[in-house]
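YM 10:42: YgjP-like metallopeptidase domain-containing protein sequence, as discussed on the call
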Amino acid sequence: MPVDPLHSAARPSRSAPSPLSSGSEAYAVEVRRSSRRRRTVSAYREGERTVVLIPARMSEAEEKRWVGVMLDRLAAQESKRMLGDAELADRAQRLSGQYLDGRARPATVRWVTNQNTRWGSCTPAEGSIRLSHRLQGMPEYVVDYVLLHELAHLLVPGHGPRFWELLDAYPRTERARGYLEGVVAADRLPHLPAARSE
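YM 10:58: structure's back
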């Protein structure tokens, strides 16, 4: 049974870009190699696709890793347009309709600043969902996963097989869980003093 990270890239094709989801939008990814580019990697949206610019000498493994990094950075930048509580509630309604047949109907969905050890929580008896303010600025698919996780708790308490079956419908569950686990792991790393130049 999966561990619940709330409490504790696909390979792009240059000739036939593959659609990758960012939040509710799908973008084709196009990788452009440049012999003039030495070390830097950049990415931007161009209409319905995401263009990732990389050095020509980069290996396929490095390309795959950097495409994932740049997609996450773009998604995080886009989600920094702060969602208010009303937009969060609309998003929850959309997710419920798309992945839970509209069965999860929260009475309230809101951001809170007093949840520092959990990403989200819900009170099924009240139909209330609360998301930690720490999610603000994270990629949209991560916020969607946490919202969907709490929506599923309105239907199934606990983290048994029935609960995880509900989340299986969301295609970015594993990626979102990995992202959150990475954030938790990074928070636990000791903070090293800045290097001094002699």
